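Working notes for the structural subgroup meeting. M.R. asked for a predicted model of this chain before we commit to crystallization trials. I am recording the input and output together here so anyone reviewing the notebook later can reproduce the run.

Input as submitted:
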Amino acid sequence: MATRISSYSYSCSPFFLGATIELSEGSISLGILLFVLAILLISRIKIGESYVIKQSKLPMFVGVLIVVCDIGYNLLTHSKLGTLDIMVFLLGISLIAHNINNEEIRRMGTFGAYMSATFIVLFLFFFSFFNYIDIDFTHLFDHYFVLLPTVTFIRAVGIPIEVVAIETVRIVGVEEMSVIIGGPCSGLYSMFLLIGIMVAYTRIEHIERQTFYPLLIITVVVAYLANLVRVSILYIVGFNYGKELMYTFHVHLGWIVFVIVVAVLLSVLDKVTR
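Returned structure, recorded in C-alpha cell form:
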C-alpha cells in the first residue's frame, strides 16, 4: 500500500507561483523570500530509502525538452514570463521529478504534472480555442461575472464608481482613475489552478468520485468569491489611497489570497483522505 505524500509537497506550488509573480511584477526581495520558503518546504519532505524504480525514462526526456523549449522560446522572443510559461515550466520539472528514484519525490512530480497539465488544457480551451472560434468568452466573463457584481457591491457601500466600457470602470476618489478588469483580474487563473490541484490530489490519493465532484464545485465557487473580494478591495484601496497603492495591492494580494485558499483546500482534502 502506497504511503500518503507529505503535505509539504502540496504546499510548494503556491509559493513558487507567488515567487514568480513577485519577481516579474512586484518585489524582487519578496520573490526571493518566497523561493526560499518553497525550498525549505521541499527540504522537509521525508526522504526515505532510495530504491531503483524500473520505469521508462521518457517522462524525464520529455520534461527536459519542455523546460529547454520554454526557456529557449522566452529568450529568443524576449517575452515576459507569464502564467502559462510558469505552468509549462512546472510541467517539465514535474515530469523530471517523476523519474527520481524516491517514492515521495516521484509522487510529488506526478502531482505537479497533473496540476500543471490540467491548467494548460483549461487555459488553451478557454483562452486559445474560444478565441480561435470567435467566442469572446473572457471579455464576457470579465464583464458579467466580475465587473458588474463588484461594481454593484461597491456602489452599495457608498463608493461612486462608473462602468465606462465592457472591462473598464472609472473611480473618482483621492484621484480620478480608470481600472481595467481583465486578464488576471478575472480570477480564471486561480480557478484553473485550484481545479488542477483537485485533479492532481484525487489522482494521487484516490478520492472517490462522489466526494470529488462536490469538493470540485465548492472549490470553483470559493475561488470565484475570493476573486470578487480581491477586486472589491482593489476598488476600495484605489478610491481611498490612489492608484499607486492599488497597484501594489494588485501585485501582492492575488497570490496571498490564492495561498490562503489553497491552504484551506488542502486541509479539507487531507481530512477527507484521512
